[in-house]
Amino acid sequence: MTHPAPASSVSTVEQGRLTGTVALITGASRGIGEAIAKAYAAEGATLALAATDRSKLESVRQALGLPAERVLVLPLDVTDRAACSEAVDAVHTRFGRLDTLVNNAGIYQSKTFLDYAPEDFQKLLDVNLFGVIHLMQLVLPRMQAQGYGRIVNIASTAGKWGSRNQSAYNVSKHAVVGLTRCVALEAAATGVTVNAICPGFVQTDMVETLKRGYAAIGGADGDKVVQAALARIPIGRVLDPSEIASLAIYLGSKESAGMTGQSILVDGGMLMC
After folding, report:
1. How far apart are the C-alpha atoms of 49 and 23, rounded to whole Å?
2. Cβ(223)–Cβ(137) under 8 Å?
3. Would you please indicate which residues are annotated as catalytic (active-site) residues?
4. How far from 181 is each of 51, 142, 260, CA to CA, in Å?
5. Cβ within 8 Å of residue 23, ≥6 positions away
6. pLDDT tens across 10-58, in order?
């Protein structure tokens, strides 16, 4: 297996666990994606940051404080396969390679099963599943050709269990977990690993979306819903996005060469089994 050759764009960077690698991170403008971008930058990676909101991406880029040669901003709707293809091409044109793909872009919607319309299921699948499919299919051939690659899919505890009032979301995340396993099997002999992280309750704007969604379902108190969820978490708190980013560093580095096809819970012990 070959390992990432040092990219010229990071030649002056102090050695970190990701120095010499190029990473594409979707959903990088906020929450977990932004935390992963910060963590990867600190470990020396060259970054391509993708999200739908250019202005927020620019704010993240500025906050990272990276030299221009180490970061590329890519406004991107992951449901648009042609746009995904253009984004991957742009990364290769700019940096000459792509070593790590972090599929973090995602949306959430809570309704009772009977209240979900078919379009709701389709919308969540388009972003949460097909966005992952598009980018994995586009990056895999070149990763396999270079003999090295790391794919990190951000799934959810919702991909590991059943829960009320979010069946469409759970379906999309169960699919990501299954897809991770299948692609990992097919790519294993080529130097490419494929793993998923399954976060529990993380302090992002998705928690606020959850509160609003439950409030719309029979007038449920969103804060009480969150408190009830916290009661099921042994460590007794909501996680910080940086805690997800720490695992993403390992899975995006050469250190994780022996791990593939895994969907790892980072949930404060909520789903111990």
Report:
1. 8
2. no
3. 169
4. 25, 20, 8
5. 40, 45, 46, 47, 48, 98, 99, 100, 101, 102, 252
6. 334 458 999 999 999 999 999 999 999 999 999 999 999 999 999 999 9
